Amino acid sequence: MDPDQELRGFEGVCRLFPLPEVVLFPHCVLPLHIFEPRYREMTEDALAGDRLIAMVKLQDGVDWNVEEDPPIESVACLGKIFDHRRLADGRYNLLLVGMKRVRLLHELPKDRLFRRAQAELLDDEYPDEPLDSLRDELVDQFRNLCSREGRVEPEIARLLDKPIPLGVLVDLLGHYLGLPGSVKQAFLNESRVEDRVQSLIGILRVHLSATNEDRDESDSGFPPPFSLN
């Protein structure tokens, strides 16, 4: 999907799907199971319209089981439903593909069960100078991590060789690595591609420098197996 083409008619109002620890990146796919009444209504509304839903992470530390509308992050990912199945009891299974980052400007008064917000689209920001050397370093560090962990998934190996924009590449790698939600949110917040790449390179360097002897049962288990979120 071409995000610019798909969002050509976007008028700045998005449906919100807040979840704890779930972060969607542009160009990535998120499978969702929709069962709560408010999100069934959200899904039905999206399918009847532009098929857009903004995945937004709940702020850390909030009790989302108690608060009806708990605080959310200010940057979300606007996704588009590209496949769905409605189950007999009204639940839905969705595949949502990330389109673009959005900054949530303010929430709108609730006139439905689900939340909505006024938002602005955020494009990747590139410096004037090429980032070829930074891209090479990111790919090398990621290959080294895969080699140390003894697993290289074919889809990731193919991804590293594709001439895709660097902003897309770092988002896809951040998606496949099972990073903590707070780290993924930090990547999502950053529209400057150079800073986003340097952050991921820094994370890879830290964990590549750790020896196997340093990793015991008390280790956090980073990096966890590659994941589809």
Describe this structure in words.
The protein has 229 residues and is of the alpha+beta class. Helix content is 34%, strand content 24%. The chain contains seven helices and six strands. The chain has a five-stranded mixed β-barrel with strand order 1-3-4-5-6. A hairpin with a 5-residue loop joins strand 4 and strand 5 (92-107). The longest helix has 18 residues, at 132-149. It is globular.
Name the descriptors.
229 residues; alpha+beta; 5-stranded mixed β-barrel; 34% helix
> Beta-strand level of the residues, as a percent range?
15-25%
Assembly annotation:
single chain
Mean pLDDT across residues: 88
How is the main sheet built?
5 strands, mixed, barrel
The succession of helices and strands, N to C, reads HEEHEEEEHHHHH
Number of strands: 6
Number of helices: 7
The end-to-end distance, rounded to whole angstroms, is 20 Å
Radius of gyration: 19 Å
What is the percent of helical residues? 25-40%
Biggest sheet strand order reads: 1-3-4-5-6
The coarse silhouette is globular
Low-confidence stretches: 216-229
Structural class: alpha+beta
Short recap of the structure:
This protein is α+β, with helices and mostly antiparallel strands. 34% of the residues lie in helices and 24% in strands. It has helices at residues 3-6, 37-48, 132-149, 154-161, 166-176, 181-189, 193-208; strands spanning 13-19, 29-34, 52-57, 75-86, 92-107, 115-122.
Set down the secondary structure blueprint:
Blueprint lengths: L2 H4 L6 E7 L9 E6 L2 H12 L3 E6 L17 E12 L5 E16 L7 E8 L9 H18 L4 H8 L4 H11 L4 H9 L3 H16 L21
Parallel strand pairs: 1-3
Antiparallel strand pairs: 1-6, 2-5, 3-4, 4-5, 5-6
Helix pairs in contact: 3-7, 5-7
